[in-house]
Amino acid sequence: MGPKVFTVREANGLIPRLEEILAEMDRVRDRVRKVKSKMDVLEMLWGEEVQSESCPDHREYRHYIEEVEGTKQGFDAISKKLADMEALLKSVDTGLVDFYGVIDGRLVFLCWKRGEKSIEYYHHLEEGFGGRREIAAEYKLDPE
Hints:
Blueprint: H1 8-13, H2 15-46, H3 58-85, E1 88-91, E2 96-103, E3 106-113, E4 121-124, E5 133-134
Antiparallel strand pairs: 1-2, 2-3, 3-4, 4-5
């Protein structure tokens, strides 16, 4: 059995949930960035010595390492939510998500970018974001 193939309307129905999931990803990524910057400071101060238990800041550094690992697991759990929806995350940075769909009898990616109110574009499987084309009105309706 292959991937779920969505109508435009079905995929549009998932946009509110996509927005929530991407916001969760943002929170996790922001936390990782903050922790990593704290780790960077300790590494600049101590060099490799920060990894030694004799370093005064080793426990703090170790705590940050554990926190980063925990947030990675959180990120993986969030990514699984997208996979369970059968949404294909193409870019975390831009919030680019594709869904399999059919346009003109051909399997395509229905293409959505964070901030767009609805799915208005598609591209062929072998093309990327640069190959986006506007979806004709008849495909935005449910098939009869």
